[in-house]
């Protein structure tokens, strides 16, 4: 299935992700061995699919893949492609916002200080100013979040 991913882990488990079902956590975790999983190989036949799992002790474990994990739903490939396209756009948007925020913070910090004083700052002073600016930004974001969640007390207006 296009939306199912098997991940072998060092604790001997295999995490099975069905991205159309859950994208934030594995749909299933199977304990295969007590040693680290080092390899996996699928073998499909007409009526079943097998998964051979190798561990770091040299043991091969063979298990049958359940039908629900091997039979694709209608249009699953299209849905999966749409999911990945949407995730790529989300990551690109996040990266763009980080760059925009950096530019905003840079322009604000340049606007506050004089041009000649900026050139004469030592690396430690620049780091301190940057840390202070980040702290102010964090406080502003925290305050906006609290307001959005209704966690701040609004001052009562007198009439």
From TrEMBL:
<dbReference type="GO" id="GO:0036159">
    <property type="term" value="P:inner dynein arm assembly"/>
</dbReference>
<protein>
    <submittedName>
        <fullName>Uncharacterized protein</fullName>
    </submittedName>
</protein>
<dbReference type="GO" id="GO:0045504">
    <property type="term" value="F:dynein heavy chain binding"/>
</dbReference>
<dbReference type="GO" id="GO:0045503">
    <property type="term" value="F:dynein light chain binding"/>
</dbReference>
<dbReference type="InterPro" id="IPR036322">
    <property type="entry name" value="WD40_repeat_dom_sf"/>
</dbReference>
<dbReference type="InterPro" id="IPR015943">
    <property type="entry name" value="WD40/YVTN_repeat-like_dom_sf"/>
</dbReference>
<dbReference type="InterPro" id="IPR050687">
    <property type="entry name" value="Dynein_IC"/>
</dbReference>
<dbReference type="GO" id="GO:0036156">
    <property type="term" value="C:inner dynein arm"/>
</dbReference>
<feature type="region of interest" description="Disordered">
    <location>
        <begin position="95"/>
        <end position="133"/>
    </location>
</feature>
<keyword id="KW-0963">Cytoplasm</keyword>
<dbReference type="GO" id="GO:0060294">
    <property type="term" value="P:cilium movement involved in cell motility"/>
</dbReference>
<keyword id="KW-0853">WD repeat</keyword>
<keyword id="KW-0677">Repeat</keyword>
<feature type="compositionally biased region" description="Basic and acidic residues">
    <location>
        <begin position="95"/>
        <end position="131"/>
    </location>
</feature>
